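Predict the 3D structure for this chain.
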Amino acid sequence: MAGRTVRAERADATRELILTAAERLFAERGVNAVSNRQVGEAAGQGNNTAVGYHFGTKADLVRAIVRRHAAPTEEIRRRLLAGIGDSTDVRDWVDCLVRPLPEYLGNLGGPTWFARFCAQAMTDPALQQIMLEESFASPSLQQCLDGLNRCLPDLPAEVRAERGEMARHLIVHMPAERERAVAENRATPRSHWDDAATGLADAVVGLWLAPVTPGRHR
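Done. Predicted structure below.
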């Protein structure tokens, strides 16, 4: 029993090393530019098959990285949702959409790579599908989207879909740009993640509430 426990602990530790190394390399170089061998080397694994042994395909590894961060961001969003109840204010629902990732990254402190990893993964069609599947598996995210839709009953369906795509790009890529700037010690428009989330929420609210030009959305 003790021997199996030690082996399990070693396997868990190895998986964590691989996940950390993969997230960093994927964030900095792009998912398709990094091989399993490079991930294994960065994780200190002498066995070239270690990544495949522990995670399977690269798609499986990407999914594991996403799930590694899912619980804390979900907890933040649930807390925010509990604070707004049945609000009819678009801003409240947008805050619940926008703030979990920046708040989570701010809580981590030190160098982070998850925002850039997400942005990189979203540029690949196959990996984007994984990212979307994992995102929409979140009950709190679906609650946010439902609440936002209730606040915008007159927005045409095609405009709603278009602005949803625009908002997604902002929500994914703006934190990644800030994370990159912080990693490179470059100045950022906002000094803290909380302030960055406020600016991002301002922009997304403006996007959703912008006027619709008649006859131009078909």
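Residues 27 and 117 are 4 Å apart (CA to CA).
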